[in-house]
Design goal:
The protein is α+β, with helices and mostly antiparallel strands. It is built from eleven helices and seven strands. The protein has helices at 2-30, 37-48, 53-63, 70-83, 94-132, 138-176, 188-196, 214-221, 223-240, 263-278, 308-324; strands at 204-211, 245-250, 253-259, 281-283, 290-293, 296-302, 330-332. The strands form two sheets. Strands 2-3-1-6-7 form a five-stranded mixed β-sheet, sandwiched between helices. Strands 4-5 form a two-stranded antiparallel sheet. Helix 5 runs antiparallel to helix 6 (138-176), helix 8 (214-221) packs across helix 9 (223-240) and helix 9 (223-240) packs across helix 10.
């Protein structure tokens, strides 16, 4: 039985390793990076360690609607090497170092709390021994025990509160690494974790959404206005596609996972998104000038028995079909 369990665990690890390898190669191919050992190592950091320096740098470049070039890879990896120290692991970065320090502090606080509890027990033992020896009165012993109980209870509670606060900070830091700073939606890293954690064969639809003519908004009104439009679109998506996983996939592109929805159900949700944005008027905050409506093109596909990578590629292909057919529409595969 033990041998069977080990075999099952080994099989699961192998499957995870294969999926990670596929994601790394897909990432390198998408960015047109040669599959060299150094680039594969870079891809491993990006795909396998979402809080790493490399992953965060890549997210920033993709959010700026840029592709990753070899010069970017070399610069990011050189920066990582320069920041490394002999006592840190290969995957350490500023965020991970901060988390590690918080974890160490967490352990320290726990140890302090336990020490306080132990000191209290030893103090009680000492006072009881004094009582037996006739060196303390019953009243003095009771008062001392009560005073020390209050003292150590306060110390223990303080340590417990700090432990809880640090635990929340750690969870928040981990969550931030998976969120887009501008819109508050999942970022590419956070969405990929959700997607690759899905049980194969589960019903669902993947949709890739892109704002039409968004570059003209940035060119005419500036990036600050463009950022507000992106936030407005994000709010609309959260309101209409309630309960779905939504990510800012890169630049003005969003990805939606409509879990447990059939193609027909998803089509209704996606048509509602197009209609709502088409009817929404955006204005310049500074001048109150009307920017007009924002339309979107959407490509969507039922996941079915496809792999996640295949589903995303097909949805992306259908998105460009929607663009070619006149924009402001949904093409469902």
């Amino acid at each position: 039985m033990l041998a069977i369990k080990k075999l099952v665990c080994s099989s699961k690890r192998s499957k995870v390793d294969v999926e990670l390898g596929q994601r790394i190669l897909s990432f390198l191919a998408a960015q047109k990076l040669a599959p060299t050992p150094d680039n594969y190592r870079f891809g491993y950091l990006v795909e396998g360690s979402p809080s790493s320096h490399a992953a965060i740098a890549v997210d920033a470049l993709l959010m700026d609607n840029r592709s990753i070039e070899q010069a970017d890879v070399d610069r990011i990896m050189a920066t990582k090497s320069a920041n490394s120290t002999s006592d840190t692991s290969e995957y350490d970065d500023k965020e991970q170092v901060a988390l590690r320090h918080q974890a160490v502090r967490l352990a320290d606080l726990t140890a302090q709390a336990r020490t306080s509890s132990g000191d209290f027990g030893r103090a009680l033992t000492g006072d009881l021994a004094g009582f037996v020896d006739g060196l303390s009165s019953v009243e003095a012993l009771a008062a001392t025990m009560l005073e020390r109980a209050k003292l150590y209870e306060a110390k223990y509670q303080e340590a417990s509160n700090q432990i809880e606060a640090l635990r929340s900070e750690i969870q928040a830091a981990r969550g931030d690494a998976r969120r887009d700073a501008l819109t508050g939606l999942l970022n590419r890293r956070g969405m990929e974790e959700r997607l690759f954690a899905r049980k194969p064969g589960t019903v669902g639809v993947i949709a890739v959404l892109d704002l039409d003519h968004f570059k003209s908004i940035n060119d005419r009104f500036g990036q600050a206005v463009g950022d507000r439009v992106l936030k407005g679109v994000a709010r609309a998506l959260l309101s209409i596609a309630e309960g779905c996983d939504i990510a800012r996939w890169g630049g003005e592109e969003f990805l939606l996972l409509l879990e447990q929805q059939t193609s027909r159900q998803a089509a209704s949700t996606l048509d509602a998104i197009c209609s709502a944005l088409r009817g929404k008027t955006f204005r310049s905050k500074e001048t109150d000038e009307i920017l007009g409506s924002v339309t979107v093109s959407i490509g969507a596909v039922s996941i079915g028995l496809r792999s996640i990578l295949e589903a995303i590629e097909e949805a992306d292909r259908l998105l460009y079909q929607a663009k070619q057919q006149g924009r402001d529409q949904v093409v469902l595969g």
